[in-house]
Specification:
This protein is 38% helix and 22% strand. The protein is α/β, with parallel strands linked by helices and 260 residues long. The protein has one domain: Rossmann fold (3-Layer(aba) Sandwich), CATH 3.40.50.150. Strands 3-2-1-7-8-10-9 form a 7-stranded mixed beta sheet, sandwiched between helices. Strands 4-6-5 form a 3-stranded mixed beta sheet. α4 links the parallel β2 (65-69) and β3. α2 crosses α3 (54-61) and α8 packs antiparallel against α9 (227-235). The termini are far apart. The relative contact order is 0.13.
């Protein structure tokens, strides 16, 4: 086991890396351009797996009332330092299929990869070379809420960002209303998570899909795709992408109509 000193050193290094990646100059402008099609002034936006708050900051800059969830105390502390602003509510919670408690596995050196998804954690290192060096050294018991509970408390969001390292489908299990739009992360090697997310969204309503590779800001297709088409794309291996975000819009969303 690493000494407490080495763990603190790795934690500081991981936090510094995240601050550099997610708060580098110019990044916010690109995020705001991306989310402007989803969020209008006065809207509500949920940031599930908020990390250091870069997406929450973009939502807030667009005029949204932001509800952010980040269960890791170290990240929540930095979030508050960076984003102590009106209309941003940070909750030290995870989201899942039902209220309760769960164990989050924390990667000290890579806190953005901490996860509640046990199977995902065991599989991703074997299937995705980019994760072979990742270790999850700590566990923390955290409180879990649901998207339905958040909606009951704060109102219906125009957009939900979900980035919870393999636990995305479980988060969607806690949603029983077809919200206007949302995004979920996908990772090569564990695309069964993405398949499960598409299945959950088909249960909720009539959605169309698009994708963004990695940390890019451009949608992959001009026309939003049907559930069948996006399922085939997942089956075909997502064009060899290592990771990215899958976006879903209700069929009556202006973005879908604009591309039709």
């Amino acid at each position: 086991m690493p000494s407490a000193f080495l763990q603190r050193l790795r934690s500081s290094s991981g936090m510094a890396r995240s601050l550099f990646v997610y708060w580098r100059p110019g990044r916010q402008r690109g995020l705001q351009r991306l989310y402007r099609s989803f969020i209008q002034p006065g809207d509500i936006a949920f940031d599930i797996g908020a990390h250091l708050g870069d997406r929450s900051a973009a939502f807030h800059a667009l005029g949204a009332k932001v509800v952010a969830l980040e269960p890791q105390p170290a990240l929540a502390k930095w979030f508050k330092r960076i984003l102590n602003r009106p209309n941003i509510t940070l909750l030290p919670l995870a989201a899942g299929p039902q209220p309760g408690h769960a164990d989050i596995a924390i990667s000290v050196g890579n806190p953005t990869l901490s996860t509640l998804a046990t199977d995902w954690r065991h599989q991703v290192g074997e299937r995705n070379p980019g994760f072979q060096h990742i270790r999850w050294e700590q566990q923390l018991r955290v409180e879990v809420t649901t998207l339905d509970q958040l909606i009951a408390t704060y109102g219906e969001p125009s957009f939900i960002k979900i980035d919870v390292e393999g636990f995305e489908a479980e988060v969607l299990m806690g949603l029983n209303h077809p919200v206007a739009a949302l995004s979920v992360e996908f990772v090569a090697g564990v695309l069964e998570v993405s398949h499960a997310c598409v299945d959950q969204l088909k249960r909720l309503g009539d959605y169309r899909f698009n994708a963004i590779a990695g940390e890019q800001r451009r949608f992959r297709w001009e026309t939003w795709q049907s559930p069948e088409a996006i399922t085939q794309w997942l089956n075909d291996g997502v064009d060899g992408l290592a990771s990215g975000d899958l976006y879903a819009c209700r069929v009556d969303h202006p973005l879908v109509n604009a591309s039709a």
